[in-house]
């Protein structure tokens, strides 16, 4: 999280980047009903922007350029604002928020989580609350499992529900992804975890010692120290095993990406349906997009090229 560059005292902009999962491994079930995970998450430079203006009427008003987005109390931006107001004890704090949406909704790219993270960081600054990054990360976990990662960003090992972060060394030459998604398809995250549990619960690890052994195995993976094209992430997503067989748009996207000549590896992100191919650099990813744009279009897939990003939510454009 970068705290520099406020534009005006009572008005600021926050950038909210998407993420992909380089590794998503379901270890077992937790007492709270969530799954115990071992993940590597990576910020990418596909971003939403939030413009925040302070008001003193106690009302938080959200509008967006995407009419399909709900802007009421179920939006994580509104939930983040309410959480901050409760912690501050100041009911008169208000804000007008404009959300410029670029991250596709319901895509497995943490767009909603990142918007919530951006609201926490931005309103903390706008309202002069001076809460520490660690305090914001703790509050972020109340909003959702991916929100703490979105505050911190970069490359992180994410354990527990996904909210226990351990930073990974930032690569000197950022890799890139070619990302595709069928705009007409959404996958429900609770459904994906529920289905995974139905099919795999008999193989779940059962105790903290076994969980910790898998965490340690992941920490010691050579492809993570640091991330580099010469030893690319093998990419693993356990949810892909249950989502792809029943979601033709995902299976089709994976098949197309797997046939791209210079792609290092291919996977679904989060609970899908977005899928991505990993490239050593943005130029190679752009070339692949240019060469295969018609194939993606014919398959009904929207496509993007993005570099890895070394940071999460950021104040200022
Ligand atoms: O935390 P978040 O709101 O993103 O989680 C959405 C849903 O995904 C949860 O309600 C749960 O069904 C599933 N989930 C899970 N284990 C996790 C994270 C999410 O089972 N670690």
List keywords for this structure.
8-stranded mixed beta sheet, binds cytidine-5'-monophosphate, 27% strand, globular, alpha+beta, 317 residues, disordered N terminus, 9 helices
Unreliable sequence segments: 3-8
- Provide the helix percentage: 25-40%
N/C terminus separation: 13 Å
The biggest beta sheet reads:
8 strands, mixed
Mean pLDDT metric: 95
Number of helices: 9
Q: What characteristic shape results from the CA principal axes? A: globular
Which structural class fits the helix and strand makeup?
Answer: alpha+beta
Strand content: 25-35%
Radius of gyration: 19 Å
The set of bound ligands, ions and cofactors reads: cytidine-5'-monophosphate
Q: Say how many strands there are.
A: 12
Which series of helices and strands comes N to C?
A: EEEHEHHHEEEHHEHHEEHEE
Describe the structure.
The chain has helices at 76-88, 111-126, 133-143, 147-152, 189-200, 208-219, 240-243, 248-258, 282-298, and strands at residues 11-29, 35-55, 60-64, 94-100, 155-159, 164-167, 176-181, 236-237, 265-268, 275-279, 302-307, 314-315. It is of the alpha+beta class and 317 residues long. The strands form 2 sheets. Strands 1, 2, 3, 4, 5, 6, 8 and 12 form an 8-stranded mixed sheet that branches. α1 runs parallel beside α2 (111-126) and α2 (111-126) crosses α3 (133-143). The structure holds cytidine-5'-monophosphate. Cytidine-5'-monophosphate binds at residues 34-35, 37, 144-146, 161-162, 189-190, 193.
Compact overview of the structure:
With 317 residues, the chain is an alpha+beta fold. The chain is 32% helix and 27% strand.
């Amino acid at each position: 999280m970068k705290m520099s560059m406020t534009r005006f005292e009572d008005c600021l902009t926050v950038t909210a980047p998407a993420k992909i999962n380089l590794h998503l491994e379901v270890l077992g079930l937790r007492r709270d009903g969530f799954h115990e995970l071992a993940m590597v998450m990576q910020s990418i430079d596909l971003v939403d922007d939030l413009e925040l203006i302070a008001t003193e009427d106690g009302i938080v008003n959200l509008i967006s350029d995407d009419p399909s987005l709900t802007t009421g109390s179920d939006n994580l931006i509104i939930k983040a604002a309410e959480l901050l107001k409760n912690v501050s004890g100041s009911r008169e704090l208000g804000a007008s928020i404009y959300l410029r949406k670029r991250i596709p909704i319901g895509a497995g790219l943490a767009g909603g989580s990142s918007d919530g993270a951006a609201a926490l960081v931005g309103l903390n600054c706008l309202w002069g609350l001076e809460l520490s990054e660690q305090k914001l990360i703790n509050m972020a976990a109340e909003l959702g499992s991916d929100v703490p990662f979105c505050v911190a960003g970069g490359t992180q090992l994410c354990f527990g529900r996904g909210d226990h972060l351990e930073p990974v060394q930032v690569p000197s030459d950022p890799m890139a992804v070619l990302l595709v998604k069928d705009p007409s398809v959404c996958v429900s995250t609770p459904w994906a975890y529920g289905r995974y549990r139905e099919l795999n619960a008999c193989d779940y690890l059962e105790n903290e010692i076994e969980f910790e052994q898998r965490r340690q195995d992941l920490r010691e993976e050579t492809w993570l120290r640091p991330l580099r094209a010469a030893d690319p992430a093998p990419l693993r997503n356990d949810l892909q095993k249950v989502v792809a067989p029943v979601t033709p748009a995902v299976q089709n996207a994976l098949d197309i990406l797997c046939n791209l000549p210079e792609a290092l590896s291919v996977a679904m992100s989060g609970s899908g349906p977005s899928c991505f191919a990993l490239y050593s650099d943005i130029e190679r990813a752009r070339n692949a997009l240019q060469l295969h744009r018609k194939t993606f279009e014919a398959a009904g897939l929207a496509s993007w090229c993005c570099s890895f990003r070394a940071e999460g939510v950021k104040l200022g454009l």
